[in-house]
Amino acid sequence: METSHILRGPASRWKPIAFFVLLASMGTAAKAGLEREFVWESFGESETLHVRVPETLRDHYSSKKRHYNYPNYVLEDEGYELSAGLAGAFEKRAEEQGWDEWELLNAVVDFVQSLDYQSETGEYPKYPVETLMDGGGDCEDTAILLAAILDKLSVN
User: How far apart are CA 115 and CA 112, in angstroms?
Assistant: First the structure.
C-alpha cells in the first residue's frame, strides 16, 4: 500500500492539498483500477482526496453475501484492506497540517458527510469500498465507512 501527498495552493495553516490512496494489487493479476476524486470543505478550506483501488478489491466485497451484522461490514478481510489506507492518508494530512486528534476526527467526519446520500433499491448495507467507489450511500453505508476509517486511526 502506498500513500503519497502533493501540496498545492498558497501556504497557510490549512493548506489545500490533494492526497492520494493507492492500494496495491491483491496478489493475483489485478484488473484495471477504479479511481475516484472527492472534494469537500473542512475547516473552511477545500480538500481533495484521490483514491485508486484495484477492481479485485471492489469485486471481492461486491460478491460477498449480505447480512445485517453491521460490525462485519466495518472489519476488513485480510488482503482486501481499504480503511487502513484511508486512515493513513488522513493521519499524514493531520501531521502536515499540525492538526490535533479532535481536528483529525472532524476532518474524517467532514469527508464522510460530504458523500452523496443515495437511497437504495433492495435495501442492504454496503462495504466501505462500495460506498467510497459509489461516491456515497444511505445512512448505514456512510456510518459503516466512517466507523471503518475511525477504527484504523491511531487516536484514543
Answer: 6
**Mean pLDDT (10-residue bins), the chain, 156 residues:** 35 47 50 82 90 90 92 92 92 93 96 93 87 94 96 91
Q: Where are the beta strands (DSSP E) in 25-125?
A: 33-42, 45-54, 116-117
> Between 101-114 and 83-97, two packed helices, what is the crossing angle to 10 degrees?
130
CA 79, 80, 83, 89: dihedral to nearest 10 degrees? 70
Give the Cα separation of 45 and 15 in Å (integer): 8
Which of these, 118, 111, 109, 120, lies nearest to 137 by C-alpha position? 118
Q: Which pTM value belongs to this model? A: 0.82
The helix or strand, by DSSP H or E, that contains position 20, with its residue range, turns out to be strand 17-22
